[in-house]
Specification:
rod-shaped; about 210 residues; 15 strands; SH3 type barrels; signal; YHYH_dom_bact; mainly beta
Length: about 210
């Protein structure tokens, strides 16, 4: 009878004492009784990477460990160098060009220039180039782009030279086939340079690139 009474008391004691259940999720804990959540964090009401404790270890507070990646720095952009500006040359395009004392053809003639004479215009007048000797009509001038001097050869039976970069301009003579031409400039499909004609005379002017190359 006493044994039955003891069993009843024990069972009653077990029912009266509250039983605490502890929910836990996979993962080993560290020396402080906690760890960082890496698996199924939402299921346990946690955030991925959140550090927390089990069984009341380390207090009730939780902490989240975050790592920040170093800021990326962009490489400095290389500065682009501006292309050099090539100054065109201006020369006299006729055998004889008058230099006037004033920017007018009615003024007195101060000097006379020859074909190929280089003009450095101050740009003060629209119809006349202003030089140290006076004024030259721009209608008597022609321009070309300077290039690195080189030698080309006349490939046709005759290589005709002209005053400007046009076969419609005044002819200056021709050089025989295989004659060497020293070129110092160009204008479109034309070279500007010099050679010698069949008589050994120096020939200066524009020759087509289809003839001399």
């Amino acid at each position: 009878m006493k044994r039955i009474t003891s069993l009843l008391v024990l069972m009653l004691f077990l029912f009266l004492v509250p039983i605490q259940t502890i929910d836990a999720h996979p993962g080993r804990t560290d020396a402080n009784g906690g760890h960082t959540c890496r698996t199924n964090c939402e299921k346990w009401g946690l955030q991925y990477g959140q550090y927390h404790y089990h069984n009341g270890g380390g207090g009730s507070s939780t902490s989240t460990r975050t790592t920040s990646s170093p800021a990326k720095t962009s490489a400095p952009k290389a500065q682009q160098k501006a292309a050099p500006v090539i100054q065109k040359k201006v020369i006299v395009a006729v055998d004889s060009a008058n230099v006037f004392s004033a920017p007018s053809a009615d003024s007195s003639v101060a000097a006379t220039l020859w074909y190929g004479f280089e003009i450095k215009d101050s740009g003060m007048h629209s119809d006349f180039a202003s030089i140290d000797k006076g004024f030259v009509s721009k209608s008597l001038l022609v321009t070309f782009t300077p290039i690195t001097p080189k030698t080309v050869k006349i490939q046709a039976e005759k290589g005709y030279f002209f005053s400007t970069a046009s076969s419609e301009s005044t002819g200056r003579g021709f050089a025989a086939k295989n004659s060497l031409v020293q070129v110092v400039g160009e204008s479109g499909d034309w070279y500007y340079g010099s050679t010698k004609d069949s008589n050994g005379k120096v020939l200066v002017g524009f020759v087509s690139k289809t003839v001399a190359y």
